[in-house]
Amino acid sequence: MSINFSSPKGFNRLENILIIGNGGRENSLAWAIQKNKLVKKVYLIPGNAGSERINKCERIKIDINNKNILVEKLDFLKIDLIVIGPEIPLANGLADFLREKDFKVFGPGKEGAKLEYSKSWAKEFMQGANIPTANFWKVNSLEEAKKIIHLSSIQLVVKADGLASGKGVFIPDSKDECIKAAESIFNGKFGDSGNIVVLEEKIQGPEVSVFALCDGERYILLPTAQDHKRLNEKDKGPNTGGMGAYSPAPLITEDDLERISKEIIEPTIDELNKKNIDYKGVIYFGLMITEYGPKVIEYNCRFGDPECQTIMPLMDQNFVFLLEKCAMGKLIGDEKIYISNKVSGCVIATSKGYPHEYETGFPIKIGEIDSSGCQIFDSGTSLDKNGELVTDGGRVLSIVCQEKDYDLVFKKAYKNLKKINFEGIYFRNDIGHQVRKNFFKEK
Ligand code: AMP
Ligand code: GLY
Questions:
Q1: What pLDDT is attached to residue 443?
Q2: Which listed ligand is nearest to 123 at the C-alpha?
Q3: 116 lines ligand 2 (CB under 6 A)
Q4: Of 92, 210, 319, 375, whose CB is crowded by the most CB atoms within 10 A?
Q5: Which tens digit of pLDDT belongs to each residue from 183-192?
Q6: Looking at the predicted structure, is the pLDDT value of residue 103 above 60?
Q7: Predicted confidence band at 15 (pLDDT cuts at 50, 70, 90)?
Q8: With 90 as the cut, is the pLDDT of residue 212 above it?
Q9: Which CATH superfamily hosts domain 343-442?
């Protein structure tokens, strides 16, 4: 990709940046943002134990729901730009609130976040704008669901309408399983998120994540990425938040991207505008490349994780300007972001038991890492009372590497990962198998 970027002229100070969130995604954003020389400090609320290992980063331990204290603190710190990482504060309208208080915010308001927090709304949105997606039925009761499931001659996917920490999607193998899934959702497995169920036609094809940074009208695409959602090798086992990723995704050519822009991205932004939704943030398009072309599986109103951890190391110091331009509604739309000529890959290490029950508090030992073109981003860690790094989440940390090809990327990632240990550490050995020429030889 191209290597030009005209720095925004006449922009305000960009000394103090705040990132809200506590995962690997937020640490990778901080890592990319701090590269810019204008940036003096990157604060994270709350961040995690890995945040302060990143240059210029400092954690702030305050509750974002305590609005008065939050605003007082941000005024005191003279925050120039706020980036909101996770979907829950976005769905709760935090971006709207902070904008009302005159902060520059990267992240959509409550109305825009609906793309993620209501699947039925998103499906109707796509239907209204003729955006390719799987056929669907929005149902309000188990009886209605059963009727559709019994009459259906196609395979169905069953989804809770609202946020469910990535656990609200069921891919049943039979009508019975479909009914059981709908039953569990209507019986309150996901609380109010399951008041509505979406039944969807099951579609087939490889998946790709596309991220559009949007200023309300214009957009810039980040490099594409492919996630690995299943827990186990060969894409088996339960769905997780993501076990690893690589970027860019060679599956998607420039021509494909043009088609995706024309058929999906531009109609999405036009439809948001038609609905008077001023979307300043990232739109994450979860796409499936079917035999009939690309279709939207889901929208998210935030960066994907681990995709974000994988993409951020490819960004140069101008990345923060893009976020600021989006927050200010001032993208030109043809900014050429510098993208490294390397490719990037990420492998996640999890706690034993994830994505189900798991224990935390195990000491993490990190040996000597080959750190050139390689980062460790913490997803779920904390410091114990002796200041020792311990596990504190399902996804614990990741190794992200950049090299000139994927064989080298994953060779380095796995070599480094061997130097990291904690009780019950688990990771997939086949991340990037689709793009590793030597994968079978390595085995
Ligand atoms: P979501 O949380 O909506 O991304 O769904 C989780 C995963 O379920 C996706 O990454 C897909 O692998 C799968 N999935 C969701 N919707 C469908 C569909 N309509 N057809 C086939 N697979 C789907
Ligand atoms: N990696 C998938 C997600 O962030 O939802």
A1: 56
A2: 1
A3: no
A4: 210
A5: 999 999 999 9
A6: yes
A7: very high
A8: yes
A9: Phosphoribosylglycinamide synthetase, C-terminal domain (3.90.600.10)
The CA 68 to ligand 1 mean position distance, Å, reads 39
Q: What percent of the chain has pLDDT over 70?
A: 96
135-201 and 204-328 in the same fold: no
State which ligand 1 atom lies nearest to the alpha carbon of 229: 10
Q: Where are the domains of the chain?
A: 16-108, 135-201, 204-328, 343-442
Q: What band does 12 get if pLDDT is binned at 50, 70 and 90?
A: low
Domain at 204-328: CATH architecture: 2-Layer Sandwich (3.30)
- Please give the Cα distance from 103 to 97 (Å, whole number): 9
User: What are the structure tokens assigned to 395, written together?
Assistant: 């996804």
How far is the C-alpha of 80 from the C-alpha of 75, rounded, in Å?
Answer: 9
Q: pTM of the predicted model, to two decimals?
A: 0.95
Ligand 2 atom at shortest distance from the alpha carbon of 302: 4
What are the distances in angstroms from CA 277 to CA 15, 36, 216, 284, 424? 29, 31, 8, 16, 45
Return the CATH number of 16-108, one of 3.30.70.330, 3.40.50.20, 3.90.226.10, 3.40.50.720: 3.40.50.20
Q: Beta-strand (E) ranges in 194-326? A: 197-201, 207-215, 219-221, 226-227, 230-232, 236-239, 244-247, 280-290, 293-300
Asked if the model's pLDDT at residue 4 lies above 70, the reply is: no
Tell me which fold the domain 135-201 belongs to.
Dna Ligase; domain 1 (3.30.1490)
Asked if residue 324 has its Cβ within 6 Å of ligand 2, the reply is no
Give CA–CA dist 293/287, Å, rounded: 10
Crossing angle for the helix pair 175-186 and 142-151, to the nearest 10 degrees: 170
